[in-house]
Amino acid sequence: MSEQTTNLPEIIIDEEFQRLLPPLDEQEFCRLEENILTYGCMNPLVLWNGILIDGHNRYNIVTKHNLPFNTISLKFNSRDEAIAWMIRVQIDRRNLTPMQLTYYRGMHYNIEKKIHGDIGRVSQNSASGHNDHLQGSTANRLSSQYKISPRTIRRDGEISDVIIAIGKESEDAKRDILSGAVKINRRQLREIASDSDADIVSIASKIEEGTFEEDSSAAKHGSPEAGNQNGSNTENHRVEASVISGANKFIANIRGLPQNAGPKILKTTIRSYINSLEELYSRI
Fold first, then answer.
1. Which is it for strands 45-48 and 51-54: parallel, antiparallel or unpaired?
2. What is the CATH number of the domain that holds 35?
3. Is 12 inside a domain boundary?
């Protein structure tokens, strides 16, 4: 580990690493900014191969105000090891919501299994069940660290994967789940794990629209008829999700236009939306 004092060096911002961390709300960010302006950036930024892995908010502040800061470089054998370290730091440092804690614990479990994947693949050639024992050791070790049962750690891993899948369709939906803005419990998320990709798209759109509690939860995951309708409604769900997603983007584009936007810009924006609908129509 090496430490240096510097003034705005070349630091790489990795989008995946940055999205991994729960963002500060506006009030928290303002408090941090005020503290750094008063006392300076006391905690060093942490780098791995020049990539920022800890201190994204501090980096934004010192860059904005052109303030000096320290950096520390850590060594990891892989990107996955760097991610595992980031997760451990965030869990130890942040005051996380219950869902955020579940998400990061599950991600930690899944990444640790991935890191030791080569060992797992070798063990599959040996006695039956040995690979399960290796995975169980990961769950046991993390359950001791987080003071919960190995079973809970494994379930957290399933839930983490579902939230990541939803986030690939909608970052807003993922953010709402983790912040608690949408009421969805661990059982519902584990049930979603067995859904098709089209269902995930539909669920992400409904969460984003704020309609998930009104129909998705009850109709799909609690209704006796849900199993009979699942196959016939898959295509409808996909089309519905695409239409909602396209409409949301169109509305965002219209709202983002300058107030003095002329007819040409408006027509171009509307034509783009019409083209997306025509493309969807052609695929049905």
1. antiparallel
2. 3.90.1530.10
3. yes
